[in-house]
Specification:
2 helices; Immunoglobulin-like; disordered N terminus; 437 residues; seven-stranded antiparallel beta sheet; flat
Length: 437
């Protein structure tokens, strides 16, 4: 009898704690991992203890083209097909868009991406060596005539992606085709430079030359050389526009410089140019009379400029995020409190990563909290991820939702207690029947 009771106890315990024993995981595989041009490559994603939406994308669509954004999936299997376009390698990454672990009572946002690299090779064409033993880059004799066009199916395209010259007009640049990184200092009043480059192979293309606008501080300029066969080489020029008296700002562990030229700031709607005082210096800023926000530009160490809300009283900075939908312009921020039953998730809205909340994991609707820049009012807004629309959400609806969630939790607690009591009663009854025998 004791063995039977022990067995029942072990089985019941296993059922109750099984979800906790299953760790959330995501596995990614490719078939094949080495493909030939024109082959189809299948990326398989296996989910265990995870649910949500995912993006499957290629790091280089010119090598491996394809990808998808999944519907809502739960602890299952999904696959995506890619087409091998040209020789090279590409990394396929599976990125959670809105995903959580499914462990009861301990659900968490799942944000870990997984990647796998696929290599693409050209079809075997046999030995096309010339008299010197080197690989031929000329057209072979086999070709097909299609009207006015002749297509050579055995042509070997040049892989030469070097530059033969790289110049910044008015400045000395010690160019070497093997050297891909250069630095240059210019005076504070220089607002643009003219960059010219010549490819080593006439059939190669160049991207990134011409007149380039400069901002204060560091400017990272990329010149990309694309060989005839599609291989790329990137030359970079870091141009530092001298700032005699920079205004430095540190946010967390990152260092920034305050932008001093108004033409480097792009004003959102309802913001007008003003001057703000920072460190006893006048700098260009943007002001919204409705919200009272003062925006200044901060430039990071890589040369990227973003708008930040500046608080003159606390002398603090916070990134300015704005979502625009038709007549609504919403600056999203964190709410002071969140109704019970809502779970925090991160979603992508118009290219921005936004913190939102939702009650039903499978729902296409998200709740976002923020200030309407046009009216200055704070409140909740409902975002429809399917139709890409945003509308105001009544607070009373949230309160009703909280009440319903509380009732739901109470009901679950009562049912769970009832089930446990019934199980205990059955065990006692089974024990008495056994003793009577």
């Amino acid at each position: 009898m004791k063995k039977i009771l022990l067995f029942i106890t072990i089985v019941l315990s296993s059922i109750m704690f099984l979800p906790h024993m299953l760790a959330a995981s995501m596995n990614v595989s490719a078939s094949p991992t080495t493909a030939t041009v024109s082959d189809r490559v299948t990326i398989s994603v296996s989910l265990n203890g995870i649910e949500g939406k995912f993006r499957i994308s290629s790091s280089d669509t010119s090598v491996l083209d394809g990808g998808m954004q999944t519907d809502w999936i739960e602890s299952g299997f999904v696959s995506a097909n890619f087409t091998a376009k040209k020789a090279g390698s590409a990394t396929i990454t599976v990125t959670p868009i809105s995903a959580t672990t499914m462990e009861p009572g301990n659900e968490q946002d799942y944000t870990t991406s997984k990647s796998i690299t696929v290599r693409v090779v050209e079809p075997s064409r046999g030995n096309n060596s010339n008299n010197n033993g080197s690989s031929s880059s000329k057209k072979n004799k086999q070709s097909y005539d299609y009207g006015d066009d002749t297509i050579d199916i055995n042509k070997e395209y040049s892989s030469d992606n070097y530059l033969s010259s790289l110049k910044v007009e008015g400045y000395e640049l010690d160019f070497d085709k093997e050297k891909t990184e250069y630095t240059l200092d210019v005076d504070e009043d220089v607002t643009s430079v003219n960059i010219t480059a010549t490819p080593s192979d006439d059939n190669a293309n160049i991207i990134g030359t011409g007149s380039i606008k400069l901002t204060d501080g560091v400017n990272n300029i990329k010149i990309t050389v694309i060989a005839e066969n599609g291989n790329e080489r990137v030359y970079s020029i870091t141009i530092n526009v001298k700032d005699i008296d920079p205004i430095k700002v540190k946010i967390g562990k990152k260092n920034y410089n305050v932008v001093k030229k108004v033409e480097q700031l792009t004003a959102p709607d309802n913001f007008s140019p003003i001057e703000a005082g920072i460190d006893n210096k006048k700098v260009p800023a943007l002001y919204n009379e409705i919200t009272g926000y003062i925006l200044v530009g901060l430039k990071d160490e890589k040369g990227n400029i973003k708008l930040y809300i500046y608080d003159p009283k606390s002398k603090s900075y916070s990134i300015y995020h704005e979502i625009t939908f038709n007549s609504i312009k919403l600056y999203y921020t964190k709410p002071s409190s969140v109704p019970k039953g809502l779970k925090k998730v991160n979603i992508d809205i118009n290219g921005d990563k936004v913190t939102s909340y939702k009650a039903n994991k499978k729902s296409d609707f998200y709740l976002v909290y923020g200030m309407n820049v046009n009216t200055g009012s704070l409140g909740w807004y409902r975002y429809d991820s399917k139709d890409k629309t945003l509308q105001r959400y009544e607070t009373q609806d949230l309160e009703n939702l909280s009440i319903l969630n509380n009732k739901y939790l109470v009901t679950i607690a009562i049912l769970s207690t009832s089930i446990l009591m019934l199980m205990l009663f059955l065990l006692i009854l089974f024990n008495r029947i056994k003793n009577m025998k």
